[in-house]
Amino acid sequence: MSSAKRGIVVSESVEEQVRKISPNELPQAIDQAKKDAKALKDQIEKAKQANNDASLQDFTSSKPLNLHNMRCKSVLKGHLSKIYCVDWCADNTHLVSASQDGRMIVWNAKTTYKIHSIPLTSNWIMTCAFAPSGNMVACGGLDNTCSIFNINNLASTIGTGGNTSNNNINSSNHNMNNSNNNSNNNNNNNNNNNNNVQNSMMNNNSNHTSVAHSAAALNDMSDIKVSKSLVAHNGYLSDCEFISDRHIITSSGDQSCMHWDIEMGQVLTKFTGHLGDVMNVNISPDHNMLVSGSCDKSAKVWDIRSGKCVQTITGHHTSDVNSVRFFPNGLLIGTGSEDQTCSLFDMRANQTLTTFEDDTLVKEPVTSLSFSKSGRMMFTSYEDKKIIAWDTMTAKPVKTLVGHENSVSHVQVSPNGCALVSASWDTTLRVWTV
């Protein structure tokens, strides 16, 4: 049965409508199409605002957080130039950092010793990442290449000395998670938390002998070579993040993200749709989604399995989106921008939940952000040397962390939520604990 017999009116395709427009009428038709698109966008925005009848702060009755005891526990020195990125290993003990001195360093964060010093083919490195197993690290930058290094002797190098130290720090620094999850009792617990950290530092000193073994095992720089080079991007590599030891996501200045099979060295999926350089990517806790932030002032949520964009976050930033992060529950997304603000976006409601801004405190662009394990705190770094801890419930700043002498390029909370690491252009890393 034909469409006409069923009483269905089939509209002309867009191509058929365009063919009927004469060349002289085309500019006017384009202008009209733009106006129609804007009108539809305005209608959608009005419908969203009609349902946005309250803010997160309206339902917040919890007591403010108290982070007065949060301080810098250690300073990691060894790079000779600006550090652009740092990433935690899943063991909560080791870090990898990438610097413009042409070197990537693997650290023991508890002892500040270097485990590996890896020479790179390019000095212009912008990103680095640890594989989930800790057996590989990746980096990339202006060479347009994601370089994978196999460091699977890391476990044998630091296994004996690192485990004891790691257990001590996990038990003592458990207070940061307690401060997030039990914020209402925070004032009563701070003194006990501080004592635990001091005990941890004493325990670390007692393990100095075993840790010295790991420091002595620092590999010669020539021992670690590139095990795999992933080449397909046409622009600089801005960020990378492992899904597993075999799969990695990269973002680039060519306005795209790519999903790679590391072993095969092949691109499995290319994510396109941004209209500007993609600056940052982050993978959801269930590893099924990724979010990307771009210089086109938007963030996009992608389904890794289908390769399709499932949500576009626009309108809440007026400049480049420098950093994006999934909330610990995977249902919210945090964004940090060149416009000096951060936003918390609810994917389910397709609405901005709250905006983090303070004209008296924040006067520089946001470079990076990271959530605490519970999500109660959000740490943001800025070009003016400081880090701010925000209460995500009240959108108010709780504490400003100072100590770096130049722009803070990256911050990241450890997987167990017990520590925060920051990287800076002052050539140092700092580890912060409560």
Give a brief rundown of this model.
With 434 residues, this protein is of the alpha+beta class. Helices cover 21% and strands 38% of the residues. The strands form 7 sheets. Strands 1-28-27-26 form a 4-stranded antiparallel β-sheet, with no helix packed on it. It has a 4-stranded antiparallel β-sheet with strand order 2-3-4-5, with helices on one face. It has a 4-stranded antiparallel β-sheet with strand order 6-7-8-9, with no helix packed on it.
Task: Walk me through the structure.
The strands form seven sheets. The protein has a four-stranded antiparallel sheet with strand order 1-28-27-26, with no helix packed on it. The chain is globular and about 70 Å long. The protein contains six helices and 28 strands. The chain has helices at 14-19, 26-51, 154-172, 174-181, 186-206, 208-216; strands at residues 71-77, 83-88, 94-99, 103-108, 114-119, 125-130, 136-141, 145-150, 226-231, 237-242, 247-252, 256-261, 266-272, 278-283, 289-294, 299-303, 308-313, 321-326, 332-337, 342-346, 351-356, 366-371, 377-382, 387-391, 396-401, 408-413, 420-424, 428-433. The chain has 434 residues and is an alpha+beta fold. The longest helix is centred in the first third of the chain and has 26 residues, at 26-51. The termini are far apart.
